[in-house]
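Try this one yourself first.
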């Protein structure tokens, strides 16, 4: 785990704040983040890229809370967005639209207009049809949309099928074989300006080889496209770098970047601006979800029922993802094996299976690695208000999102008249 989040003197700390004290004050379920862990993760990318033209665009889908975006904006990062809503968040957090790349297979015309008017740095276009629509929208506004084509390099990222995106069978990107034609088409349209190329091959990637293979495939295309007279300014290698949930050993960002730069240099592309779109590796291990044990149900199968559920944390139910679970104040009693489950009415509502824990009702548990794809994927299923979020910076802790209130959940609903 991250050094920012660790047990000291029999208590779990996030930086210099005792997690149990935060739960006493703010209740549970509670998300707690380490601001310095986020800063350190961004710095690892930036330091490895120092002296090179680059932009690290935080993929905000991983955790789109305003104070998280603010933290990365202050660190000099750009942002990777996939909706008009995410663009509004970036602006509300004080982010700079000129550092925003807009990804996604299905952008609406309204979202295209919104992004053009805000002045985003570039659109990552995922199909030929999208080129035509975007050109139309830009021309109608009397401007040209900066575009980068997301190509599908057809490499195996060797990760969970739901989060692997760079293979032929995926809905993402323009097939490698059609990319040159798509670039010619883009260059011929009045409302577009070609500025770059990009790819994103998947998420929670723990090896460097798929990245190097994808880079090679992308550079082949860059050379072909430039030969056709269309200059390419930046190369965006996407996000996807994995983190340690249990025993995974992903390369450090600096190691991966070192290898990518070597490959770029060896192929004579060292001058190019490099963009990254990391999400999980910037925030994943910077947060925990704190939950309270409600009841224990021993028996053939032993259940530890807690107050956080699949609506708070979808990853186990959706991907059978393993998330570490630790007590906030470890007991000296003998540990027993428990399935840690939530109160939602679904058998898929579990947070951890067969975990060895010494627990009693009222204890707090922390689910680890909950900085990414946790709160941002939370829902209100079972009319459960989403929990609060706290950002820790040293010994200071600030509420960055209030706990939802039940009445807010149905504030927009109406009974039928008559
Ligand atoms: N760029 C694009 C175009 C993406 O689609 C994604 C993630 C990223 C960047 C950031 O990838 P990262 O560095 O976070 O791996 N909900 C899943 C992960 C879905 C990832 C979707 N795309 C999970 O909880 O594992």
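Now uncover the answer:
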């Amino acid at each position: 785990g991250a050094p920012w989040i660790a047990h000291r003197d029999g208590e779990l700390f996030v930086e210099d704040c005792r997690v149990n004290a935060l739960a006493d004050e703010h209740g549970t379920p509670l998300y707690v983040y380490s601001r310095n862990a986020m800063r350190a993760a961004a710095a690892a990318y930036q330091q490895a890229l120092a002296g090179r033209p680059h932009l690290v665009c935080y993929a905000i889908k991983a955790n789109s809370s305003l104070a998280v975006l603010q933290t990365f904006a202050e660190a000099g990062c750009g942002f990777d967005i996939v909706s008009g809503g995410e663009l509004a968040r970036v602006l509300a957090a004080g982010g700079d639209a000129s550092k925003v790349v807009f990804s996604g297979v299905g952008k609406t015309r309204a979202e295209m207009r919104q992004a053009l008017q805000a002045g985003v740095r570039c659109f990552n276009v995922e199909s030929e049809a999208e080129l035509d629509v975007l050109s139309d929208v830009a021309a109608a506004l009397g401007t040209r949309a900066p575009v980068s084509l997301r190509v599908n390099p057809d490499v195996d990222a060797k990760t969970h099928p739901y989060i692997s995106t760079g293979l032929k069978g995926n809905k993402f990107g323009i097939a490698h074989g059609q990319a040159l034609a798509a670039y010619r088409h883009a260059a011929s349209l009045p409302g577009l300006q070609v500025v770059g190329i990009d790819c994103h091959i998947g998420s929670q990637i723990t090896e460097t080889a798929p990245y190097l293979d994808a880079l090679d495939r992308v550079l082949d295309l860059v050379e072909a496209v430039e030969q056709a007279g269309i200059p390419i300014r930046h190369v965006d290698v996407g996000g996807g770098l994995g983190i340690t949930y249990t025993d995974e050993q992903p390369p450090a960002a600096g190691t991966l970047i070192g290898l990518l730069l070597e490959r770029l240099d060896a192929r004579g592309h060292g001058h190019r601006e490099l963009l990254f779109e990391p999400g999980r590796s910037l925030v994943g291990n910077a947060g925990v979800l704190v939950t309270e044990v409600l009841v224990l149900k021993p028996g053939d199968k032993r259940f530890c029922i807690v107050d956080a559920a699949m609506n708070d944390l979808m990853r186990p139910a959706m991907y059978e993802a393993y998330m570490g679970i630790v007590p906030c104040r470890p007991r000296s009693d003998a540990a027993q094996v428990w399935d840690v489950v939530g109160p939602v009415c679904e058998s898929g509502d579990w947070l951890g299976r067969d975990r060895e824990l010494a627990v009693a009702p009222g204890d707090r548990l922390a689910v680890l690695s909950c900085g990414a794809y946790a709160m941002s994927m939370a829902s209100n299923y079972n009319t459960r208000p989403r929990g609060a979020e706290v950002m820790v910076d040293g010994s200071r802790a600030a509420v960055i999102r209030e706990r939802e209130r039940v009445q807010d959940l149905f504030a927009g609903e109406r009974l039928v008249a008559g």
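Discussion: The CA atoms of residues 147 and 194 lie 5 Å apart. The chain has a mean pLDDT of 96.
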